[in-house]
Amino acid sequence: MILGGTNNSSAANVSTHGEPKCAFENASSITTNLVIIGFVLILFSSLVGNSLLIRVVLSDKEARKKFPFNFLIINMAIADIMNASSASLVFILFLTIGRLWVSGIFGEITCKVSYFSVGFSVAASILTVVVMGLDRFMAAHATIRPLTKRGVKRAMALIWVLAGLLCIPYFYIFRSEQGSDSRYYCIRKWSEDAEENLKSLAVEEMIKFVALYACPLIFMVFCYAIIACRIRRRSKLPVGTNTRSKIVQQNQRVVGMIIAIVVIFAVCWFPVHVNHLLRSFDEETYCKLPAYLPLSFFGLAHANCAINPWIWFLFSRHFRSLLKATTIQSISRWIAESPKDGRYGHMPLTVKRTSKKRLEIQEENDQAMTAEQVLL
Predict the structure, then answer these.
(1) How far is the C-alpha of 369 from the C-alpha of 344, rounded, in Å?
(2) Domain spans in the chain, listed from the N-terminal domain onward
């Protein structure tokens, strides 16, 4: 989530000698390098995975018209790219220069915007997953229609507005202040009074835990549990042996995806919320934690945005087929457009075979979209 400071009200939460107060602020070079490598991998995986997911969804124009839900997938991918980019930048800066910041109006603005962008993208991603669960719950229910294209667009606008409102306090609590060593630091502070600051920070963390973890998790478990039950019930309908076999296989993939989405969200975000709550209610114990623990918790939380796109490719046969077809088409186009220099040339036969293969894949997907389309 957000790499906040300790509950001390002094600038940059450092001692009078300018030394870090908590262990994680003075991590060893090995720990620092490992965490930096981890965030670089998170950034790379998120950029590649979510970019491919966006490309695949956009390439399926017919599905976008029939299933507005796909716009929510794009919305989630955009939020996850923003999350990985902003979080990686903030954490790598913290691990290399600490809370040291620049002075003046530029320092004040960048301090606020940097941490706001992390919280904003995290909130947008989580809220998008919640809306996706609601939409799929509506689609699985016999008497409720899923969100229309207009409804999805309104939901997406509401997601970003709510994410912004949840993170507006960051513009107040993050600031660039001069420390006792005459250098400027980007710090997090609700009040000049230490006791009041402690209470405010505890309230903030409790609100974030409830609004961005507990409630979304409970809601997703509820919605996806009902979806899984309905999908399993459909597989018991009286159909032919071959059709039943396909339905059972599709159901297994969909239920597996449902479980993966909920479990990965819960596992990735639980440690960092516990970390934040411990910092708010028992700062002394928090500051004694080995440096690698809080830092790994932060990395695990933001790894969620790098894992999300690969869940879709892993469990969705439809998306894997689209990814394969899109990749083959891109390679064929690149080869066809290469200059004829004796080594390369236009390859119409390859393109034709690719187009034919894509049509076969599309026909196969059209026949296998019953249970899987409940989620996609």
Answers:
(1) 39
(2) 11-315, 316-376
